[in-house]
Design brief:
This protein is α/β, with parallel strands linked by helices. The chain contains twelve helices and 34 strands.
């Protein structure tokens, strides 16, 4: 055994030596020789140019043409070489390469371009080929331009086309929507070219960015480079013939075709994961039923009205994308639109979301069957322009994003645009987890970065858009779950009087809000148990507690009457706690000590005041007014005097008492 171990270690060492030798000998991987420049441009009169060679080996140079000489032509170690360029009598340009080859290594290349007496714009590589997609940081290409005239890159008149010709009638609308605008020039379209009294040509580099191709057609863009002063500068080509422009041709390969079937769904998901650099990847050879985070429509499912059941079976019903890296400036991949039967979409955890200002894109807005949309920790600063098209939405979770205004959100997210919405979560929209003193900022920023949802709803009676936005959300009857926790929201909650005014005819609870006896399936969601909460219909049993005196059930505003979940904790709220919260029929369900009463610990509002509600503390709060201290005898009203909902005692206290006995 010892002998075998020795052989094993020897083999490992030998493999290490082989790998080490291979790494060292790989051509072009060492820094054996570097040049201080790789492009030289000369005028027709010729001249000299100095090039610094840095090396730790012997080297030799070679020139591909007779009109340039190098001195010294070889050497050991570093040296300064002088290039002598002959004058030319030609009207057009000429180019050659000088290669500096260190011993045993790949040579470095220096390109020399000499202009003639004619006016020219030369593109080193006039044809560029791009892949259909790449990571955001890699979606660019550089173009080297040599010129002896001031020039303009004509981005307003790019000639866009498809290499395959006109798209088919089936693809025409989609293809033409992606035909143009997919390349963009960084910086000015008139690069600065110092021609040294208009006599000496120069070389400049410009950078273009490009968008991913999502259609099954090869895109072509022809960009014209023209003289900035065409009346003064007549261009010529390499044969000396007059021309008006020089063309850069960019060709982008077609994307894989996504078909309208189950195979198309799987390809769309795989492409999305690749483009967003998701931590989750899928094996295309594996059945989609086994993919984590993906569910398919089954024949036994409850299909929404209008959906073609037979066509939908086996297609993607819900998908979860998480742990990804979408950069600022790019939208969510357009392939999402191919998941046409999607009912649930869950997108979570973009890298560095607090520092990024993200936009989502419009393709999601065509998913007409979408019921559950969760875009969490993405970095959103606004919503898709047509998101109100998603009329089927029942759940919308937009937590941990970078929204700055509640009023801007409610201009889109409201009960008119989303009549079926039941759950709305806007919690966690902070861009800093460390900042807790709003009096220390005058512009809602911290270290130069916006704080996120940093709004002042003002005091009771204040009229401002942000306060009205909150009142509008609280007037949304259909919501059974509403979250607005962990933000920078300061001010006082709307009072009972403000909510009564906002609710109008539905200001208070009525018989139609309740069911009696056992709840039917259709009753439970949008009905309240009359047996348990009948106090809300009475005016003869006033309640007095530490907050209020003589509160009658008919006094309590009907705010979010069916909300089983409600949270506003870890904000910067102050002022009194209103009765519409304290006497809500599901108040006890909200875990109010943690999720309602508890504001930012040691937080200060913009006036420098420690935040928290004036009339109640999350630390010594009790439910004695709500369901009482002792077990009630429902046949004896004296046992639940000054208690609003005595039957809740049996659910939240008596069960624990019975279990401990």
């Amino acid at each position: 055994m010892k002998y075998i171990n020795n052989i094993t270690w020897a083999l490992i060492l030998c493999m290490g030596l082989v790998v080490s030798c291979k790494d060292d000998d790989e051509p072009g991987t060492s820094e054996a020789l570097t040049l201080d420049k790789t492009e030289i441009t000369m005028g027709p009169e010729g001249g000299t140019e100095r090039v610094q060679v840095t090396s730790n080996l012997s080297w030799v140079s070679s020139v591909s043409g007779p009109w340039v000489s190098v001195s010294p032509a070889n050497g050991i170690g570093s040296a300064e070489c002088i290039l002598s360029v002959d004058s030319t009598l030609e009207n057009t340009s000429r180019t050659l390469e000088i290669k500096y080859a260190p011993q045993g290594q790949q040579p470095q290349t220096l390109t020399v371009t000499q202009f003639g007496f004619g006016k020219q714009i030369l593109i080193k590589d006039p044809e560029v080929e791009l892949e259909s997609s790449a990571n955001y940081d890699d979606r660019y290409f550089d173009v080297t331009i040599s010129t002896n005239v001031e020039l303009k890159i004509d981005m307003d008149n790019i000639d866009y086309s498809f290499a395959e010709g006109e798209p088919s009638a089936e693809d025409e609308e989609e293809a033409n929507s992606q035909k143009t605008g997919w390349i963009e020039l960084e910086g000015s379209n008139t690069p600065v070219v110092d021609l040294d009294r208009k006599a000496r040509p120069r070389t400049v580099k410009v950078r273009f960015r490009w968008d991913m191709n999502t259609i099954a057609y090869t895109r072509v863009a022809k960009v014209s480079l023209v003289p900035l002063h065409p009346e003064e500068d007549q261009l010529v080509d390499n044969d000396g013939n007059p021309i008006e422009k020089v063309t850069l041709t960019v060709t982008q390969e077609a994307a894989p075709k996504i078909t309208d079937d189950r195979a198309g769904d799987s390809l769309a998901i795989i492409m999305i994961c690749e483009k967003i650099q998701s931590m989750v990847s899928y094996d295309p050879s594996e059945n989609m039923r086994n993919w984590d985070g993906v569910t398919l429509w089954e024949r036994t499912d409850d299909f929404p009205e209008g959906m073609d059941k037979e066509a939908a079976i086996g297609r993607v019903r819900s998908v979860n994308f998480m742990g990804f890296d979408i950069k600022e400036g790019e939208d969510f991949p357009r392939e999402i639109r191919y998941l046409k039967y999607l009912e649930g979409l869950y997108i979570q955890s973009n890298t560095n979301r607090q520092s990024r200002e993200m936009h989502f894109g419009e393709d999601i807005c065509d998913l007409k069957y979408l019921k559950n949309l969760n875009i969490t920790s993405y970095g959103l600063v606004d919503l898709p322009e047509n998101i109100q098209n998603l009329k089927s939405l029942e759940s919308l979770v937009l937590s941990s994003n970078n929204f700055a205004s509640l009023a801007d959100l409610t201009a889109v997210i409201n009960k008119d645009n989303f009549p079926n919405l039941k759950m709305l979560d806007l919690s966690g929209c902070r861009r800093s987890d460390a900042f807790i003193d709003l009096s220390a900022t005058s512009d809602n920023t911290y270290n130069g970065v916006p704080l996120g949802l940093c709004i002042n709803i003002g005091k009771v009676g204040t009229v401002n858009p942000e306060r009205q936005a909150l009142i509008d959300l609280l007037s949304w009857d259909n919501l059974t779950s509403f979250g607005l926790s962990y933000g920078y929201i300061e001010g006082e909650l709307p009072s009972d009087e403000e909510m009564v005014a906002a609710l109008g005819a539905k200001a208070h609870y009525s018989e139609s809000d309740f069911f009696e006896g056992g709840a039917a399936a259709t009753d439970w969601e949008y009905k309240i148990s009359k047996d348990t909460c009948q106090w809300l219909l009475s005016d003869d049993r006033p309640i007095t507690n530490d907050l209020s005196s003589n509160v009658r059930g008919t006094d309590v505003p009907r705010v979010l009457p069916f909300a089983r979940v409600f949270s506003i904790n870890l904000n910067f709220l102050t002022g009194p706690m209103p009765n519409w919260i304290m006497f809500h029929p599901y108040f006890v369900e909200w875990n109010p000590g943690s999720m309602v009463l508890n504001q930012q610990e040691k937080g200060k509002n913009s006036d420098g005041v420690i935040v928290g509600f004036d009339n109640i503390s999350p630390y010594d709060f009790n439910y004695s007014y709500y369901y009482g201290k002792d077990r009630p005898d429902m046949s004896d009203p004296s046992t639940y005097e000054n208690v609003a909902y005595p039957l809740y005692y049996f659910r939240y206290v008596a069960l624990d008492e019975d279990a401990s006995e």
